[in-house]
Amino acid sequence: MSKHVARKRFGQNFLIDQQVIADIVNAVASRRTDCVVEIGPGLGALTDPLLKRLDHLHVIEIDRDIIVRLQQRYSPDKLTIHQGDALSFDFAALNPGSAAGLHVVGNLPYNISTPLLFHLAGFASHVFEMHFMLQKEVVERMVARPGTSDFGRLSVMLQYRFVMDWLLDVPPQSFDPVPKVDSALVRLIPRAPEDLSARDETRFAALVSAAFAQRRKMLRNNLKGILSEAGFEQLGIAPTARAEELSVDDYIRIANALQ
C-alpha cells in the first residue's frame, strides 16, 4: 500500500522513536493473557511490540484507511479492531465481569486528549492501569499541585480517581510529522473504591466545574448559590480564596457538606 499521510483532523502524529516505543511497552508490562486495548494504533508502532507479548489485542481506530491496513496486516484471532471514536467507546464492554481489569494504552491525539481523559475516568472501575503519550502541557496539568497555575479541574478530577506517575519526557523528533509541542508518558492507576470518599460524585464533579469556571474570581463568587458564607466558615475555607488554592480533599469536604 502507498504511504499513509497523517491527517490533521484526527490529530495524527505517529511515534517513530524505537527507544521510546520500547520504554512504553516495558512500562505497560503486560502478561500474555491480559486484556489490553490500544487507542489509536496508527501505523502499528506500539501494536507490533504489544502483540509479541500478548495472545490478543483490542484496538480502537477512527481512520478507515488505517483500519484497512490493520486488517491486511493482522489476523482477527490476534487483533480485534473496533472502528469508531474513542470518545464514545464503551470500555466496560471489553471487561464484562472480569476482576483483572483493562490495560489501556495509546499515543493520544492532542486535539481530544482532555475530553478523552474525562471519558476514561468514567470507566476507572473497569481498568487495571493506563499508559498514555500526551502533550507535556496536559501531563503538567494532570499532576499539578494546589497553589500552582497548572492546577485546575483536570487535576482535581483525575487526582481524585487515579494515582498518576509522570514516567518519561518525549521530544517532538520522536514523531512523524514532528509536532510543535513536547510530549510525555504518564501512567494512571485507579484508586481503590474505599479511597473514593465523595458521597455524591455527580455533585463533586459539578462543584469542581463551578469552582474553576472563572479562575480569576474568588470562590465566594464562583460558588455563589452553592456554598453560603456560613458554609465557608464551618469548613474553614476562606471565601476569598481562588479555586487553585484548594486541595482535592477540600473539594471532597465541600461536596460532602452540601445538602
TrEMBL record:
<dbReference type="GO" id="GO:0003723">
    <property type="term" value="F:RNA binding"/>
</dbReference>
<keyword id="KW-0808">Transferase</keyword>
<keyword id="KW-0694">RNA-binding</keyword>
<keyword id="KW-0698">rRNA processing</keyword>
<feature type="binding site">
    <location>
        <position position="40"/>
    </location>
    <ligand>
        <name>S-adenosyl-L-methionine</name>
    </ligand>
</feature>
<dbReference type="InterPro" id="IPR020598">
    <property type="entry name" value="rRNA_Ade_methylase_Trfase_N"/>
</dbReference>
<dbReference type="GO" id="GO:0005829">
    <property type="term" value="C:cytosol"/>
</dbReference>
<feature type="binding site">
    <location>
        <position position="15"/>
    </location>
    <ligand>
        <name>S-adenosyl-L-methionine</name>
    </ligand>
</feature>
<feature type="binding site">
    <location>
        <position position="85"/>
    </location>
    <ligand>
        <name>S-adenosyl-L-methionine</name>
    </ligand>
</feature>
<protein>
    <recommendedName>
        <fullName>Ribosomal RNA small subunit methyltransferase A</fullName>
        <ecNumber>2.1.1.182</ecNumber>
    </recommendedName>
</protein>
<dbReference type="GO" id="GO:0052908">
    <property type="term" value="F:16S rRNA (adenine(1518)-N(6)/adenine(1519)-N(6))-dimethyltransferase activity"/>
</dbReference>
<comment type="function">
    <text>Specifically dimethylates two adjacent adenosines (A1518 and A1519) in the loop of a conserved hairpin near the 3'-end of 16S rRNA in the 30S particle. May play a critical role in biogenesis of 30S subunits.</text>
</comment>
<dbReference type="InterPro" id="IPR029063">
    <property type="entry name" value="SAM-dependent_MTases_sf"/>
</dbReference>
<feature type="binding site">
    <location>
        <position position="13"/>
    </location>
    <ligand>
        <name>S-adenosyl-L-methionine</name>
    </ligand>
</feature>
<dbReference type="InterPro" id="IPR020596">
    <property type="entry name" value="rRNA_Ade_Mease_Trfase_CS"/>
</dbReference>
<feature type="binding site">
    <location>
        <position position="107"/>
    </location>
    <ligand>
        <name>S-adenosyl-L-methionine</name>
    </ligand>
</feature>
<comment type="similarity">
    <text>Belongs to the class I-like SAM-binding methyltransferase superfamily. rRNA adenine N(6)-methyltransferase family. RsmA subfamily.</text>
</comment>
<dbReference type="InterPro" id="IPR023165">
    <property type="entry name" value="rRNA_Ade_diMease-like_C"/>
</dbReference>
<feature type="binding site">
    <location>
        <position position="61"/>
    </location>
    <ligand>
        <name>S-adenosyl-L-methionine</name>
    </ligand>
</feature>
<keyword id="KW-0949">S-adenosyl-L-methionine</keyword>
<dbReference type="InterPro" id="IPR011530">
    <property type="entry name" value="rRNA_adenine_dimethylase"/>
</dbReference>
<dbReference type="InterPro" id="IPR001737">
    <property type="entry name" value="KsgA/Erm"/>
</dbReference>
<dbReference type="Pfam" id="PF00398">
    <property type="entry name" value="RrnaAD"/>
</dbReference>
<feature type="domain" description="Ribosomal RNA adenine methylase transferase N-terminal">
    <location>
        <begin position="20"/>
        <end position="192"/>
    </location>
</feature>
<keyword id="KW-0963">Cytoplasm</keyword>
<keyword id="KW-0489">Methyltransferase</keyword>
